[in-house]
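Note to self: keep these together.
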Amino acid sequence: MAATPVYIICSPRPQVGKTLLARLLTEFLLLKNGDVAAFDVNLKEPSLLDYLPKVTETADVIDTYGKMQLMDRVIVDDGLSKVIDLGFHAFDEFFKMTDEIGLLKEAARRHVAPMILFVADTDRVSGRAYETLRAQIPRINLITVDNEYVVRGELPPAMAGGRLFRLPALPGFLKTYIDRLSFSFTGYLRQEKDSSTELHQWIRRNYLAFREVELSLILQRS
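Structure:
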């Protein structure tokens, strides 16, 4: 059997599309599997909890109790995919914790497969954070997210050599449309009969890319 996946979506920078990616992935997993558990580690609204309250709960990594509560919920082989939307404010503390507890080894022991999706930016803070992850996360477990709405051009060379997930940019008016709290990606796919629309194709492209990520998890465990 495939290990239970845990997707950790992160960046040390605000406003890079991290919660957008978490929404997309959570809705994809909900559509595919019928259930998902999402965890919102953010300070500001709107956050993942505002968009998907039925499958999302808040979490924090400020103190030891909060950290252990979160780890106890996600590092468990129950077949239920997990998504963590990790706020930029918690980036350093979270990965300091994962390094101290040996997250990857503990997850492997419990038949859990963490995947870290790092949303890239071109600033120095992002560069240093990426190097921190490279030092503790095997390449197979680390995916760089190239959000074309944020990174307008080539990724920094250090980030371009590993696994990539490309998030295509949408026109501004469509971005405003999908930012509404009432908007659902899966709902749009079901309701919009014209599959040639730009938004329909954008959602399908990202859902298919998530399927490829899932397939890679199965292959690396086989």
